[in-house]
Amino acid sequence: AVLRRGSRATTARECAHLTGSWSKDVHINPSSTFAERALSGVVTNPCSPLPATRRCRSSSSSAGDKWSGAQERSWAASSIGGSHGASPDPRKITAQLKYAQGARAILANVGNHLEKLNPIHASFALNLLGKDASRNRKGQLRDLLRNDGAFAGLLQLTKRFATEFPARNLANALHGIAKLCANGALKARGATTVEVIEALDAALVKCAGDLEPQGTSTVWWAYAILGRQPSQEAAAALASVTARDAHQMWSQHVGNTWWALGSLIGGERLPHEVAKYLHQNDEMWRGLIEAAKREAAKGMRSQELANVAWSLATTRRVIDEDLWAIVQKAIAKGAGEMNAHAVSTIWWAHATLGRLPDGPVMTALCAATERSAREVFNAQDVATTVWSLATLSSLRGMPLPRCYDDAWKIARDMQPGQFHNTGLCKLFHAYLMRKHGLSVGDKGEYPVWIINQAKDAWMMQVRDLHDLYASHTHQNEIAGVFRDHLKLNCEVEWVTDGGYFSVDVYLPDGEVAVEYDGPGHFVGTGRDQLRWFRSGETCTKTAATELRDLFRTKTCAGGVISIPWFEWKDAENQDEYLRRKLDNKVQ
Q1: Rounded to an integer, what distance in angstroms lies between the CA atom of residue 135 and that of residue 103?
Q2: Is the pTM for the entire model greater than 0.70?
């Protein structure tokens, strides 16, 4: 009975309870001689101590061959009410955890049964705590977890049980930890948290094949929330399972998986090799694209649809036009029920892709934006919507709709402290588009604070980028060729007048901006970009790069010269390559 209901380690622990040999200071190894003896059934009376010198057969031999059903029932009964100490039924522990009211009660149950918890209990308790985290004030739960010894014990148990977790329970454990970190109750970079996640990551490699679609999407989501990359091996295992099971994914699984991959790849949270592997895994993406087509055609919830659109923009893969057409139809159909966050996210996806919404979609999105502006727009939604509409107007000549003015009216009624720095930067970027005459028909009134606080946030971002890229190899290589071989004055990471933009290499004599464009400046994977270039095909710049070039032409009289990474990589003579670029610019 014990073998059937528990893991091997838990079984050994319960057998130790039955023989009266357990103490808190003795840690039983499930592969130890004692555990094997306990599991082998070599004694008639399960409640008597085992002979110290008796060796047993391998633990792989069946205990069921030795014991009758009556003996099994007798042992199970003695495990609950025997004279050598009570060992509660694992199902009772599960029930107590399930019906515990709040984090404090959950931890109390964990503490009461800490030495008797099995892997199922550990993952269940973490999952319950994660769900409860969103209902607690961050400080209260953080202080509770920090000071409660039961939680520290639970984390250590989770680390120890990592290789024993069934796939579903491993996913639940990761989900619980991610929820706790997302709600500020646990530090994702804390030493103990990192150790637990690394143990779960290593175990995932072995059990990923047993994950169901829900578990797969949960694990991807957890990694994205934690802002932490899976190992190369875990990423490969997860990608393989995702490709295998994509046809079985429901709408929620599809939306969560797309969002997680967009966050991990597009958010640059992965080491280069892991991100490159996932970005170029065509088999996985084919499965996800087909799943998204199927679920979007059937009808996805608004947030799931927004997740797919957001990820399409973030991952920079070549858009599957059939999927895009289905997504457009789904947006037009469901825009009336979308919340403010979904509406602003879909505007952002269109702007980042540089694609105007189709006619019906434009009408439906504008109506949804006007409704949201009257009801529930928060600071993040306002900033995202303003920036997206200004960008589409600047890049594609879209006349600004009435909802653009509505969003700015809300911004005027807000205080700068309500916006994160990212939101302030978006608002100031939209202001610069109007200032340089890029956005069409922008006559809105801007809040006074945009010239102060929003400008300061933007300037800080420019300075950070300047410091980040000042020592990059390719910019310095290009500057070296201009300076040493072509005998031209140049500056690396030059900041434009006003301090609004930073240029990779600036040639002051001709007032020319030179920009080195790496793989992130083009649509598609780096492998595809190089193949297209070598076969004579055109590589498409991202909308963000197009917008950057528009600003460079406005701020640098000599215009902008783009140096695509694949051209620089294949240039046999870099001196001649740059001289031709300059000659073409002069002409």
Answers
A1: 10
A2: yes
